[in-house]
């Protein structure tokens, strides 16, 4: 038995595939797996929540037409590429990470099965290698060119801490986050996004185009991680307005992650909250991955008592906003947001009050 948590990202959105900084945490919405070797050549999967099954020969693993199975098959293929002989196994899984909410249910599935097989087969892969395997599974079998943040957060989460990850060097550092004083509340817009079908991969290409242009003037710029806002602004005309705005958002978001870490160390939650609002404005106006529903949720939250900050979270075009709310105000905040959002959109608002927890682990014996 293995549990694999979903994740929130306090700040640092769309920076991971630009080799920048992110600040995620594992949360107490999780996927649970029961996995055993079956002494056969057959992989049998049961998606409990969907009431669906899937099977395939262990030595014939390939991308399938069953979308949910591909997250598991992709990890198996990655383990095989690393020289791990994966025999037949049975796996039943399910959980309460909301699908399409930006809490990375897919990464939880990838990391849970990777961790379980690594343990059962004594494969000896470390957590970072498992994170890479999950990321590449997403690239090759799900068709989403994600960065490594989601898988990293699920595996490396630490109770009571957020973790700043340098997505270039993969160095990381934990920062305290007191969920007794400040709760992380997610508001689900009720609009589900499928990243593979969205503008996600297009944004990656736009950033790569920006890097190629900036390199003509600054050869040392290997990714947007290396560029400063001043450099981006200096080459507005060469970049063109659209690519300019994409690049400006990313370089400013990297600076916001670093600033958030400084404020967390100093216990300055109001300042962290203001950075969240600035992040949302950039995602809305420059990166253009927000939606009317997400913008509404942020604006409804802004004047509420006890709210430090809010922004859209995840790939965009739906999913959740993340809200930092003083613990004593959470109940009133949830009640108001639920009433106001449904009144304006007709959509019933789901909210999740999350706690920050440890990363992937076995359950029981």
TrEMBL record:
Active-site residues from the entry: 150 (proton acceptor)
SUPFAM superfamilies in alphabetical order: GHMP Kinase, C-terminal domain, Ribosomal protein S5 domain 2-like
Site residues by UniProt (Transition state stabilizer): 7
Catalytic reactions of this protein: alpha-D-galactose + ATP = alpha-D-galactose 1-phosphate + ADP + H(+)
Residue span, Galactokinase N-terminal domain: 2-36
Pathway: Carbohydrate metabolism; galactose metabolism
InterPro entries documented for this protein: Galactokinase (IPR000705), Galactokinase_bac (IPR022963), Galactokinase_CS (IPR019741), GalKase_N (IPR019539), GHMP_kinase_C_dom (IPR013750), GHMP_kinase_C_sf (IPR036554), GHMP_kinase_N_dom (IPR006204), GHMP_knse_ATP-bd_CS (IPR006203)
Keywords: ATP-binding, Carbohydrate metabolism, Cytoplasm, Galactose metabolism, Kinase, Magnesium, Metal-binding, Nucleotide-binding, Transferase
Domain GHMP kinase C-terminal positions: 265-341
Family annotation (Gene3D superfamilies): 3.30.230.10, GHMP kinase, C-terminal domain (3.30.70.890)
Binding residues annotated for ATP, in chain numbering: 100-106
EC number: 2.7.1.6
Annotated GHMP kinase N-terminal domain residues: 70-158
Compartments, as annotated in UniProt: Cytoplasm
Residues that hold Mg(2+) according to the record: 106, 138
Amino acids binding substrate: 13-16, 200
Family, per entry: Belongs to the GHMP kinase family. GalK subfamily.
Function: Catalyzes the transfer of the gamma-phosphate of ATP to D-galactose to form alpha-D-galactose-1-phosphate (Gal-1-P).
HAMAP family: Galactokinase
Annotated protein name in UniProt: Galactokinase
